[in-house]
Amino acid sequence: MTTLEIRDLHVDVAQTDSDAEPIHILKGVNLTVKSGETHAIMGPNGSGKSTLSYAIAGHPKYQVTSGSITLDGEDVLEMSVDERARAGLFLAMQYPVEVPGVSMSNFLRSAATAVRGEAPKLRHWVKEVKEAMTELEIDPSFSERSVNEGFSGGEKKRHEILQLDLLKPKIAILDETDSGLDVDALRVVSEGVNRYKERENGGILLITHYTRILRYIKPDHVHVFVNGQVVQSGGPELADELEENGYERFLTAKAG
Ligand code: ADP
Ligand code: MG
Ligand code: MG
Question: What is the dihedral of CA 140, 94, 148, 85, to 10 degrees?
């Protein structure tokens, strides 16, 4: 059983112009995610959802100014990005990066080596990757292509789920995994996430703007995220309410 615990987290984002003051984005986030639980974080654009995922993953542009993040009591904020991955944290980014000149197969093997602490035996590895790619309906030719280079939105997201499948993290953060997916890709990606959940009993933090993906991946808990904070938490019925009424009620509550 693994527990990711976020307490009163405040995060500033460094602006591109390094002379400019950092912007205060996260304003006291509290959240606990345990193995086997799926938490959906839902909020309007610009509310700080990606900032939360980057802060957990340890992106250097996102500075934690106060609060804590722990994984089974261990201080995540003290860990390097690699150490976080080895500890079992995984982030599928909203905008996955392209890595020209590095093939998918090399990239995945390096990532697996970093997370597992030793290089997977080549024969096993080739089989493992092949099976995972088949399940995700990824064409075998992708293993020789450069990471994410020229991939469509759907292909990038499948690749993220391929990493999830191979790296088997304890807690997976999926940032807008549904964005830009057609219905077929959404189904394949969701099935991959659900398989991960079943096989690894992983904890999932599913960040999304739309309720559509929640028809495929059932959350146990739904959190409404507005202006850098969780403003309401509930069960799956909260997502239904958002589907019906949008975020209006929460925005007005904040202003008033
Ligand atoms: P969401 O994922 O909910 O759409 P983000 O976390 O991406 O929200 O952004 C929250 C706010 O922080 C936005 O106002 C955004 O413009 C700002 N922001 C995020 N990252 C940066 C950055 N690297 N530089 C400047 N502003 C940023
Ligand atoms: Mg956004
Ligand atoms: Mg975002």
Answer: -80
Q: Is the pLDDT of residue 256 over 60?
A: no
User: What is the biggest distance separating any 2 CA atoms in the chain, rounded to whole angstroms?
Assistant: 61
Residue type at position 83: E
Answer whether 43 contacts ligand 1 (Cβ < 6 A): yes
List the CATH number of the domain containing 209: 3.40.50.300
Instruction: Give the CA count within 13 Å in the CB-facing half-sphere of 232.
Output: 17
| Ligand in nearest proximity to the CA of 15 | 1
Report the interhelical angle of 104-116 vs 153-167 (nearest 10°).
Answer: 30
Model pTM score: 0.93
- What rounded mean pLDDT belongs to the chain? 92
Give the number of whichever ligand sits closest to the CA of residue 48. Answer: 1
d(CA 194, CA 197): 5
d(C-alpha 239, C-alpha 237), whole Å: 5
Task: Count up the domains in the chain and report the number.
Answer: 1
Q: How many residues does the chain have?
A: 256
